[in-house]
Design a protein that fits this description.
There is one protein chain. The protein is built from eleven helices and 18 strands. The chain is of the alpha/beta class and 527 residues long. The protein folds into two domains: 332 residues, FAD/NAD(P)-binding domain (3-Layer(bba) Sandwich), CATH 3.50.50.60; 157 residues, 2-Layer Sandwich (Cholesterol Oxidase, domain 2). The strands form four sheets. Strands 1, 2, 7, 8, 9, 10 and 18 form a seven-stranded mixed β-sheet that branches. A six-stranded antiparallel β-sheet has the order 6-12-13-14-11-17. A three-stranded mixed β-sheet has the order 3-16-15. α1 runs parallel beside α6, α1 runs parallel beside α11 and α4 packs across α11.
């Protein structure tokens, strides 16, 4: 039966985007009794195809992004900055958003990330404001973790599940880290170390990114379905083209169907939850006589301060079996070099998936039989890698704009990414690789690859393009994540980040989304 993509009668809330932020807001608001419509640009993927998509991800003939149907005119973009930005490399559009393909790492920002001591402008809120929402987000996701991080921010609540035990290669790294006086601790994961919330325990397929066929890793589809059970309506393949508005309110979200028919979804309140690229793009596409430079853009900052996390990696081989690729997620990390007065935040990660996996080696080999078996024996299982995230400096010249020379499948200008890596950023990446190299050298490893200051790239964490602040002249949203210019427009996204730290952003996105939902529910109750 064809999906009915006609608009609902005027509802309480229209949410743009069915990723983790949109799903959590929809669930919380519908649980409070409000009528919600969610508009999602991508499709609703069939759960029954997870195994097929996993198998596709293992084949060298398929690009990683093709596993979730990324590409083509729908996802066209251009990169115009000094450093090329591969926007589609890990982008995902569909019900569930980026959690369909994410790694599942869920860590809290530190106190110093909020007050400016870790570099950049301070947030208008502090860690204490988000701490209860961090705990709620961990419960909603189902996070496996342990309170064993001596460098982490204060927490009062236990993790929902026990942490995954250290891997075999973690124990190898432990020898070197202990000798170098580098403290390590468990890595929180949004995947089940035991049955949780109707999802089974992780069974170790080892394809977490881009596909978890077992359903042990959290996907936002879980909260989409809970919201639907509460009465929410979720319309997939309904990309929003523009937001119709008056001087101070959004009146309707205009979306298109796969057949090209446009509809208007009216609502009392609107939540933009489509990520750090598509949100500023939509606001810019919604320019009008009221807002000639883009909706909610009286500050001129919509799209500016596009910020990433930078990757740093050092890897090689040692003369012992490391059992890499038995699991595909990180179980041990170190925040020892995070809160420093000498360099920007650095998060170290002890990788469990270094080198080419055996399936990939076999599928790409040009020989067979005993010869291939001997190759696998020689090349698989003795690799090690220390990876990490490094904070990028938030700068206004890094930004998302519209490229009017190229259009998407609906005739709209595509997003153009202006992105560059500063000397300060490269120095911080260089410091990270120094630490990583010291660990491998302590193990007498043959270092075979380094992703350092001259080869670093983005981690596909899109942040900062509608930054939060108390001053309407220097920010896009207020401390409650409501736009300064429109009183019924809220943004639940990493786009509101002021500084980005070096922590994977999804848990902070979730905490902010839950906080937005509470403020929005209070606003609705007073109308």
């Amino acid at each position: 039966m064809d999906t009915d993509r006609r608009p609902s009668d005027r509802v309480d809330v229209c949410i743009v985007g069915a990723g983790p932020a949109g799903a959590l807001v929809a669930h919380r608001l519908t649980a409070a009794g409000y009528d919600v419509v969610v508009l999602e640009a991508g499709p609703r993927f069939d759960r029954e195809q997870r195994i097929e998509r996993m198998e596709q991800s293992l084949r060298p003939s398929h690009a990683p992004q093709s596993v979730w149907d990324v590409g083509g005119e729908r996802d066209a973009y251009t990169s115009a900055g000094p450093d090329h930005y591969p926007l589609n490399h890990t982008r995902t559009k569909g019900v569930g958003g980026t959690t369909l393909a994410w790694h599942g790492m869920v860590v809290r920002l530190h106190e110093r990330d909020f007050d400016g001591r870790n570099g950049g402008d301070p947030w208008p809120i502090d860690y204490a404001d988000l701490r209860p929402y961090y705990a709620q987000a961990e419960q909603e996701f189902g996070v496996a973790g342990a309170d064993d991080n001596p460098f982490g921010p204060r927490r009062e609540e236990p993790f929902p599940m026990a942490a995954f035990p250290p891997s075999h290669s973690d124990s190898i790294f432990a020898e070197a880290c202990q000798s170098l006086e580098i403290a390590t601790h468990s890595a929180p994961n949004a995947r089940n170390s035991e049955d949780y919330d109707g999802r089974g325990t992780c069974v170790g397929f080892g394809t977490c990114k881009p596909v978890c066929p077992a359903g042990a890793k959290y996907e936002a589809l879980a909260h989409v379905e809970k919201a639907e059970a509460n009465g929410a309506r979720v319309i997939d393949r309904a990309p929003v083209q523009r937001l119709e508005h008056s001087a101070d309110r959004i009146e309707a979200a205009v979306y298109a169907t796969p057949e090209g028919v446009e509809h208007r979804q009216e609502a009392r309140q609107f939540v933009l939850a489509a990520g750090g690229v598509e949100i500023p793009r939509l606001l810019l596409l919604s320019a009008s006589d009221h807002y000639p430079d883009g909706l909610a853009n009286s500050s001129g900052l919509v799209g500016r301060y596009f910020t990433e996390h930078l990757g740093a990696r050092v890897g090689g081989t040692i003369d012992r079996r490391t059992r890499q690729h038995h699991i595909e997620f990180i179980t041990t990390e170190s925040h020892q070099f995070y809160d420093s007065d000498d360099h920007p935040p650095i998060k170290l990660e002890l990788v469990n998936y270094a080198g080419q996996p055996p399936v990939g080696t076999a599928l790409s080999a040009d020989h067979w039989g005993d010869e291939l078996l001997e190759t696998l024996r020689e090349t698989y299982g003795n690799t090690l890698e220390v990876a990490g995230l490094v904070q990028q400096e938030a700068r206004p010249e890094n930004r998302i704009t519209l490229d009017h020379s190229r259009t998407d499948d609906h005739g709209n200008p595509v997003p153009q990414v202006h992105w560059s890596i500063s000397d300060r950023d490269r120095q911080a990446v260089g410091r990270a690789t120094e630490i990583q190299r010291s660990i491998l050298e302590e193990l007498d490893a043959d270092i075979e690859w380094v992703v350092g200051r001259d080869a670093t790239g983005p981690a596909a964490h899109h942040m900062g393009t509608t930054r939060m602040g108390a001053n309407p002249e220097t920010s896009v949203v207020d401390p409650q994540c409501r736009t300064h210019d429109l009183d019924n427009a809220w943004i639940a996204s990493s786009s509101v980040f002021v500084s980005v730290g070096a922590m994977n952003p999804t848990l902070t996105i979730a905490a902010l989304a839950l906080r937005v939902a509470d403020h929005l529910a209070e606003t609705l109750s007073q109308q």
